[in-house]
Write a sequence for this structure.
C-alpha cells in the first residue's frame, strides 16, 4: 500500500512540488501517491484539506504533508491534522531574518512575473521571438537574439530554445546545420555576423539515428551512416570555428539550458 | 551596498533558485545581489566556490548561501566558509526518514526527465504536438490533445500551451476564436467533437486593447470597441456552452496552467 504525500500551497505549489520531487527521489523504494493541492489561501479551504488528510489517515499509512503556506493561521489548521507537516519556506525564514537583520514581510502577494509586470512583457516577447526564430525560419532579426543554438536535426535545439525563453525570458533563436554546411564546414550565411552568440549542440549518432528512425523509418535521413556523418561534421565545425558546444545526449533540457546560461553569463529576465 | 546571496547546487540549481526567490520575496527592502552557481559536484569545485564566498565576505556584508548539495563532504567544504549556509533539502531528509521508516538513499544521479527516459520522450512529443497545434494551425489531430485552449487573440493561449507541454508533458493545443465565431456564438467546426477538452481564456478588454495597440497601433483590431466586443462575446460563448474558463488578466502563466491542471484533473507526465 502506498503512502500519500500531499503538496499543499497557497499559490501554484510549483515550488513545493519541485522541492518535494527532489526530496522523494531520496526514497526510491517508498511507494508514494502524490496529491497536489494548490491555491489554499483561506482557513475555509484549509479545513477542507484537513478533511482529505483525515480520510487518508483513516484509510492507510500516515500521510505526509509538504507545504508552502504563508499565513500562519491557515498553516495552523493544516497542522492540526496531526500528520507530519513540513513547510518548505517557514524553516528558512528565521535564519534569514537574523542574517539580514530585518523581520520578514508577509505581504508577497505581488507574484513575480504577473501580467502587470515588465518581467511578464519580456517573457512574452522572448517566447514570441523564439517561436518566430525556430529552426532558422527567420534569420533577419538575429541581432536581437541573446543566443543562437545550432545543431543537426533532432539534437534538442527547439525544446531548449523554448525553455530558455519561457523560463528565463531569454531570446533564444535556433538554426539547423544543413548537409551543405556540414560538408563544406561553413556556417549558414545569416549566422556569420552573430558568431559570438552561437552555441552548438552535439549528439550521439546512435541516439539521433534511433529518434529519426521513429519518424522516417528506413530513410537516408535516419540511416546510421548519415547520422554518423552529421554528428562528426557538426562537432568538427564547432571545434574548427571555436564555437562553445555541449553533448546533449545524456542531458535534460534543464541541464542544457543551465549550462548555456552559465557559459554565456546570460542575465535571466525572469524567475 | 547590496548583500550577496549565493545559490549553489550540485545539479542545475533550479530548485534552490526557485525556493530562494520565494524566500527573498519576504525581504523586499533588503538589497540582494544573486549569484547562481550550478553543477558543484566535486570537492575541488567546492573549494573554488569558497574562494568566491571569501572574497565577497572581505569586500562587503556577510554573504548568505542557499544550497542543495547531496554529498556531505562537498557540502562541508562550503560550510567551512563560515557564512550562513542553508541546505534546502538536508533540513527535510531526517523527518522524512523517520516518517517513512527507511534511511534516505543518496544515489539519485538518474535525474528525472533525462533523455533516456520515457518521460523525456513524452515531453518532446508534447512540445512537438503543441507547436503543431498552435493557433489553430492543425485541427486534424485534436483527438490526441489532452486539452484545447480557446480565446481571443492575445489572451495568453500560446504561452500557456507551451508551458503545459514543456513543464508537464501535457499535449495542449490552442485555437483562436474568430470574429464569426464570436458573432454567431458558435465554436469553430473542428472543435465541436472535442467539447470536453475545451478551456476558455477571457481577458480584460482594456488590457488586450493595450497589448494590441503596441503591435498594430490605430487598427480596428486594436480598437477598444473591438476588444470590448470580443471579450464580451467570448465570455458569453463560454457561459452559453458551459465551457470552463478563467480570466487571465491578472494571472501568471504558472497560475493559469495550475488552474487548468487542477480543473481537468490532468495527469502530469513529467515533473
Amino acid at each position: 500500500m502506498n503512502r500519500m504525500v500531499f503538496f499543499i500551497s497557497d499559490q501554484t505549489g510549483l515550488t513545493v512540488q519541485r522541492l518535494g520531487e527532489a526530496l522523494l527521489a531520496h526514497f526510491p523504494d517508498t511507494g508514494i501517491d502524490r496529491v497536489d493541492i494548490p491555491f489554499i489561501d483561506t482557513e475555509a479551504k484549509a479545513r477542507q484539506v484537513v478533511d482529505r488528510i483525515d480520510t487518508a489517515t483513516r484509510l492507510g499509512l500516515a500521510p505526509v504533508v509538504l507545504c508552502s503556506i504563508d499565513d500562519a493561521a491557515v498553516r495552523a489548521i493544516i497542522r492540526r491534522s496531526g500528520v507530519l507537516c513540513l513547510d518548505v519556506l517557514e524553516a528558512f525564514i528565521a535564519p534569514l531574518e537574523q542574517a539580514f537583520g530585518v523581520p520578514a514581510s508577509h505581504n508577497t502577494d505581488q507574484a513575480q512575473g504577473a501580467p502587470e509586470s515588465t518581467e511578464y512583457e519580456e517573457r512574452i516577447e522572448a517566447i514570441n521571438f523564439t517561436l518566430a526564430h525556430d529552426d532558422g525560419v527567420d534569420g533577419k532579426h538575429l541581432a536581437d537574439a541573446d543566443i543562437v543554438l545550432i545543431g543537426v536535426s533532432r539534437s534538442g535545439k527547439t525544446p531548449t530554445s523554448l525553455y530558455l525563453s519561457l523560463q528565463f525570458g531569454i531570446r533564444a533563436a535556433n538554426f539547423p546545420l544543413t548537409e551543405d554546411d556540414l560538408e563544406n564546414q561553413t556556417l549558414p550565411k545569416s549566422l556569420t555576423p552573430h558568431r559570438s552568440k552561437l552555441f552548438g549542440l552535439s549528439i550521439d549518432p546512435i541516439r539521433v539515428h534511433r529518434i529519426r528512425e521513429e519518424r522516417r523509418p528506413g530513410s537516408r535521413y535516419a540511416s546510421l551512416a548519415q547520422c554518423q556523418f552529421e554528428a562528426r561534421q557538426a562537432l568538427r565545425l564547432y571545434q574548427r570555428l571555436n564555437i562553445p558546444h555541449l553533448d546533449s545526449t545524456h542531458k535534460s533540457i534543464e541541464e542544457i539550458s543551465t549550462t548555456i546560461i552559465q557559459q554565456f553569463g546570460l542575465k535571466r529576465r525572469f524567475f
